[in-house]
Design brief:
- The chain is α+β, with helices and mostly antiparallel strands and 258 residues long.
- The protein has seven helices and 14 strands.
- The protein folds into two domains: 2-138, 2-Layer Sandwich (Fructose-1,6-Bisphosphatase, Chain A, domain 1), CATH 3.30.540.10; 146-256, D-Maltodextrin-Binding Protein, domain 2.
- Strand 1 (31-34) and strand 2 form a beta hairpin.
- Helix 1 packs antiparallel against helix 2 (41-57) and helix 5 (186-194) packs parallel to helix 6 (208-220).
- The radius of gyration is 17 Å and the shape is globular.
- The structure holds D-MYO-inositol-1-phosphate and calcium ion (CA) (2 copies).
- D-MYO-inositol-1-phosphate is lined by residues 82, 84-87, 154-156, 184-186, 203, 206, 210.
- Residues 82, 84-87, 154-156, 184-186, 203, 206, 210 line the site of D-MYO-inositol-1-phosphate.
């Protein structure tokens, strides 16, 4: 059964990815959800393609999708979908974005698929079965000190109001890590932690659809997730710290000083 869920999620992610590639670089009918938070026709149509694919297979399952598509179903199965993670990149034709599809069963995340259609990279994981990139097993990195670590982060959409809140940890990690990147798609940042390209990632105020799928992928790749105090991670929480595990405590020490 779980294999079937994964196949449906991968095929749905590819259907969403096709829509995104069709619109990349073309007119996008940009609308603003907030002063720095935009949405395009590609977000909406990719979501429609993904949701109709999933509900075609599982009409009774619950849907939680960023742009609001729902089937009003109440079920212990909840599909959590970001049709386009990295919308700002996409709107500028910067090719760093992904489709994210996670499956929660009885309140627990059990499966995740993150698909980058530009690089044709499909990250997948199922609880207890490991994490994969295009079918090949992936693991987090072996970097064991913060000063050798390449970190990634992102800035929430209220950054114009609260810039200092986000600059403080950035400043501290600038002094303590090897380097920091801000690619612009949280799902990709976290999958890069899972595959050892990044060693750690932190970002506050992410939404469930930003982190649902990638959290399973990080865990199954041997990584660690928590909040900024080392407490239990939740996709409905306010803080995401994801790492290879080896530098987790050092990252927590930095976050605790702020
Ligand atoms: C955003 C991206 C970005 C992160 C924001 C997210 P969206 O998602 O993941 O990297 O910094 O916090 O909201 O809006 O492009 O789906
Ligand atoms: Ca997102
Ligand atoms: Ca999105």
């Amino acid at each position: 059964m779980h294999d079937e869920f994964l196949k449906v999620a991968v095929d749905a992610a590819r259907a969403g990815g096709d829509v995104l590639l069709k619109y990349l670089g073309g007119p996008l009918n940009i609308e603003f959800k907030g002063d720095a938070n935009l949405v395009t026709i590609a977000d909406r149509q990719a979501e429609e393609a993904i949701v109709s694919f999933i509900t075609g297979h599982y009409p009774d399952h619950q849907i939680m999708a960023e742009e609001g598509t729902t089937n009003n179903s109440v079920s212990s199965y909840r599909w959590i979908i970001d049709p386009l993670d990295g919308t700002t990149n996409f709107a500028h034709s910067l090719p760093i974005f992904a489709v994210s599809i996670g499956l929660e069963v009885n309140g627990k995340m059990v499966m995740g698929v993150v698909f980058d259609p530009v690089r044709e990279e499909c990250f997948t994981a199922m609880e207890g079965c490991g994490a994969y990139l295009n079918g090949k097993s992936i693991r987090v990195s072996d970097v064991d000190t913060l000063d050798k670590a390449l970190l990634a982060t992102g800035f929430p959409y209220d950054r114009r109001i609260n810039p200092d809140e986000y600059l403080l940890p950035f400043r501290e990690f600038l002094k303590t890590a090897q380097e920091i990147r801000r690619p612009g798609a949280a799902t990709i940042d976290m999958c890069y932690v899972a595959s050892g390209r990044f060693d750690g990632f932190w970002e506050p105020k992410l939404q469930p659809w930003d982190i649902a799928a990638a959290s399973v992928i990080v865990k199954e790749a041997g990584g660690k997730l928590s909040d900024y105090k080392g407490g239990e991670f939740s996709i409905y929480g306010k803080e995401t710290l994801a790492s290879n595990g080896k530098i987790h405590e050092e990252m927590l020490n930095v976050l605790r000083t702020i």
